[in-house]
Amino acid sequence: MNAMEKARYTAVGMIVGRILKYVDKNPDENILKLVDLARRVSGGVFPQKPFDRFRSTVSDPESVWSGYARAFLRDVDLEVLRRMTLSLGLGTYVGTKAVRKNREKHGCNIPYIILLDPTSACNKSCKGCWSAEYGHQYNLSCDDMESIVSQGAAMGSHIYMLTGGEPLIRRRDIFRLCEAHPDCTFLAYTNATLVDEEFCRDMNRVGNLSLAISIEGSRETTDGRRGEGSYDRCIEAMRLLKKNRCLFGMSVCYTRANVPEVTSDEFMDKMITEGVKFALYFNYMPVGRDADVELIPTPQQREHMYKWLRRVRDGKTGKPMFLLDFQNDAEYVGGCIAGGRNYFHVNSAGDIEPCVFVHYSDSNIHRDTLIEALKKPLFQAFYKNQPFNDNHLRPCPFLENPQCLKAIVNETGAKSTDLLAPEAVETLCARCESFAGEWEPRAKTLWESTKHPNPKTQYYRDRSQESGVRSQE
């Protein structure tokens, strides 16, 4: 941040702090005033309907989300709320303007979110995960990570998700990064093995870092994929984080083996009791040398996930947890968000990839700026061809539309970025063809029988798009 931005950050921070203390004195009454203030401050950058909808929901004492908002104020440290509100709110407000401006200026995708791998190292070996194969030899240096965040913030990207490997192996470097960029929000996906009292204190001290703890449902399904004792360690870490009033959620990879467990009322209620405030659900993707196609959820399970999501988020009958499913929520953002449309990924060797699951690249941070990468053929192919399907229940260019990624990689000359053994795009896409073919008719029926929101994202101006290699019904 420059001097002017720091002054604004400090001034707004003082105001946010006073507001949160005011709300904390009487949450039932004052939380509505906070929503009204946020609506006025947004100045038309964001649409008003979400504010109105949220206000209506929170004002209803019988609503699930009314209780959720109050629990948030009760369970999370007030200073953490101040810093997180400041980094996420101010960062998103400033960033949205910059993203829109830079998309027009550069004629390419500009993301809101950047994923990066501080290290390839991991202390676990989960079934179906490629990370544990990579060993400890690849790391982004502190200068690398600082450069990524600085370039990203200048483009308008103020949200950073740390993946891996196990990112908390680099915990000290991560905290320094958070301190250096108080206008950015950081989230680390973690197996929770390195969470201790000291970590909780540091997490609250910086205030702009949250965790997504990887868990697979029950003890049996979690330990079955992540190793014996994994479930108990996750619960132990959650209790430690809750005691210290840290902000955390969970990351759930749903597979053919665990869909019943990760969608059960018992599991959700348990996670809410342990202090989980948000959940990020991921469809298993058959990526890497040891990928197991038998873990891909069946079409029946995908339909179950789609319907379950809408039930569990219902304000009257749902669960008090903020929940996203990156596969089944594509209708809310107009399809695939990779390739810089909303996010991209930088691996631990510096390769700039369209998606955390698409291990192909034609750029690297050690020779290309982020803007240069977004203008190169691979990212331009995403830019020109998104969405890859008019049915947003089939958003992915390889899981549901394998012919799309195959064409893009071959036409752009992108190279495999697998850190051990290069994987031909034909090999990856072949693993998806069976599921894609089985899901297509079921997804068509579900799409045509269900009411959907406007598939254009609410947060930037979608341009008219020409058909390229995207799937046609």
Write structural notes for this entry.
It is a single chain. The chain has 473 residues and is of the alpha/beta class. It folds into two domains: 3-75, no CATH class; 77-456, Alpha-Beta Barrel (TIM Barrel). It is 47% helix and 10% strand. It has a nine-stranded mixed β-sheet. A two-stranded antiparallel ribbon has the order 10-11. Mean pLDDT is 87; it is low at 458-469.
Describe this protein with a few key phrases.
11 strands, 2 domains, 47% helix, TIM Barrel, alpha/beta, two-stranded antiparallel sheet
Helix content: 40-55%
**Distinct helical segment count:** 17
User: Superfamily at the CATH H level of the largest domain?
Assistant: Aldolase class I
State the strand order across the main sheet. Answer: 7-6-5-4-3-2-1-8-9
What is the name of the CATH topology of the largest domain?
Answer: TIM Barrel
What would you say about this model in short?
Helices cover 47% and strands 10% of the residues. The protein has 473 residues and is of the alpha/beta class.
Secondary structure blueprint with pairings:
Layout lengths: L2 H23 L1 H15 L7 H10 L5 H12 L2 H29 L6 E4 L25 H14 L3 E4 L8 H10 L4 E6 L6 H10 L2 E6 L4 H8 L3 H14 L4 E7 L4 H4 L2 H9 L4 E6 L15 H14 L9 E4 L17 E4 L5 E2 L6 E2 L8 H6 L1 H9 L16 H11 L2 E2 L8 H24 L25
Parallel strand pairs: 1-2, 1-8, 2-3, 3-4, 4-5, 5-6, 6-7
Antiparallel strand pairs: 8-9, 10-11
Helix pairs in contact: 1-2, 1-5, 2-3, 7-8, 13-17, 16-17
